[in-house]
């Protein structure tokens, strides 16, 4: 018999790509005596890449937050670590914006003169202190990783999400806790992936009422509160529904 295989060649897949993101650097990576957020690029192409004029942003409505200066080259197989923060006297490139540990996106854009298209992107949710997210191969294959800036990514082992507990909730917020919330607890000795899980107050009518953002994680023995205010546009820790004080 004749075997047939079909595949898609991504001709627009850039040789230079986003490779690792650290949005909650409490103590993992010491950068000239500080612990900033970090963005890593990798050149998987066969030749040196000129990054001059390419841009990084965490907001597609503000694409010019950071532009690579003229003469910025990245050799074949090389990594470039960019500090996600304001220039502070430490060496290297600084984006002028920090990353949100509660979730957002990082985007690599082409030069404005070349059309300004998004060359690469990663969008993530709740991050764990001192662990990064890294690309493990493929256009969308991101996972929780141990920080290895300047070297190949190393995947972080994960616990079973089935062990997660609903630890506390508040359905009539006042005073200090003005908003309703639901708190999850991870009793495992490994971090747990939350992306792909759902929270709901209607398990039999609307079990998929709120999807937790992809690339969200809960730390070892960690707690995470989700604000039940019906405003998910405010961040990955906000739910798309509120809790009923009477019953729910």
Q: How does the overall form come out from the CA principal axes?
A: elongated
Classification by helices and strands: mainly beta
Number of strands: 19
Main pleated sheet? 6 strands, antiparallel
**Which segments are poorly predicted (pLDDT under 50) over 5 or more consecutive residues?**
7-11
Spatial strand arrangement across the major sheet: 7-2-1-10-11-12
Helix content: under 10%
Oligomer: single chain
- The sequence of SSEs as H and E is EEEEEEEEEEEEEEEEEEE
Q: What percent of residues are in strands?
A: 25-35%
Question: Span between N and C termini?
Answer: 60 Å
- Cα Rg: 20 Å
Helical stretch tally: 0
Average pLDDT level:
91
In words, what does this structure look like?
The protein is built from no helices and 19 strands. The protein is mainly beta. Strand 4 and strand 5 (about 65) form a beta hairpin. The protein is elongated and about 65 Å long. The relative contact order is 0.15. The model is unreliable at about 5-10 (pLDDT under 50).
Topology:
Layout: E1 16-22, E2 37-43, E3 49-50, E4 55-57, E5 66-67, E6 73-74, E7 79-84, E8 104-109, E9 118-124, E10 132-135, E11 142-146, E12 154-155, E13 165-170, E14 181-185, E15 192-193, E16 198-199, E17 210-211, E18 217-218, E19 223-227
Antiparallel strand pairs: 1-2, 1-10, 2-7, 3-6, 4-5, 4-8, 8-9, 10-11, 11-12, 13-14, 14-19, 15-18, 16-17
